[in-house]
Design a protein that fits this description.
- The chain is of the alpha+beta class.
- The protein has 2 domains: about 10-85, Winged helix-like DNA-binding domain superfamily/Winged helix DNA-binding domain (Arc Repressor Mutant, subunit A, Orthogonal Bundle); about 100-165, no CATH class.
- It has 5 helices and 8 strands; from the N terminus they run αββαβαααβββββ.
- The strands form 3 sheets. A 3-stranded antiparallel beta sheet has the order 1-2-3, with helices on one face. A 3-stranded antiparallel beta sheet has the order 6-7-8, with helices on one face.
- Helix 1 packs across helix 2 and helix 1 (about 10-25) packs across helix 3 (about 70-85).
């Protein structure tokens, strides 16, 4: 007699995949440039749904790993503890990305909106060897200029963009 399997619950599958992503996660970069990645060798449909929910970077692309969003990183750690460690939750993982520095916010907001979009849409990714859109970015001020740091919209690797905003440079 053949038995039929019940229909799997996609939400529970996503929880399990997110917890397993946490299992293989690693931190790349240091200090304010640190972020958590994980190998993306899991069910593609589940990875796509996790991306749609804003928990991970887009899994489609050349990169063999994904990047957790801040919310995804916290949720993955909690699910890992709940599903595999017998604890209801685990301590929230340390926040790895920094918000915009206040001085950088002023520089960024001084740029007209249409120019901001052009800046974000035209970032060179050394991994793709092509122009990309910068996603999930932050900014800081250095020597009067704005430095944007985020992730390639195609492959998910770190990209950086210098926006020269200082009017006068000191030449030594």
């Amino acid at each position: 007699m053949a038995s039929t399997l019940p229909t799997p619950d996609p939400d529970r599958i996503e929880d399990a995949v997110l917890a397993l992503l946490w299992l293989t996660a690693f931190v790349e970069g240091r200090g304010e440039f640190a972020y958590r990645r994980a190998w993306k060798g899991h069910d593609w449909e589940a990875l796509g749904r996790l991306h749609e929910k804003g928990l991970i970077s887009d899994p489609v692309g050349k990169s063999k790993s994904i990047v957790f969003t801040d919310e995804g990183e916290v949720r993955a750690g909690e699910l890992f503890g709940k599903l595999f460690c017998g604890t209801p939750t685990v301590e929230n993982p340390p926040k790895t990305r920094q918000p915009f520095a206040p001085s950088a916010i002023r520089l960024w907001e001084a740029i007209p909106e249409r120019h901001r979009q052009q800046i974000l849409d035209n970032v060179f990714c050394s991994h793709c060897a092509d122009m990309c859109r910068m996603e999930d970015f932050t900014g800081f001020k250095e020597l009067g200029d704005l430095i944007l740091r985020g992730f390639c919209g195609t492959c998910g690797k770190v990209v950086v963009r210098l926006v020269e905003t200082s009017e006068e440079k000191s030449h030594r």
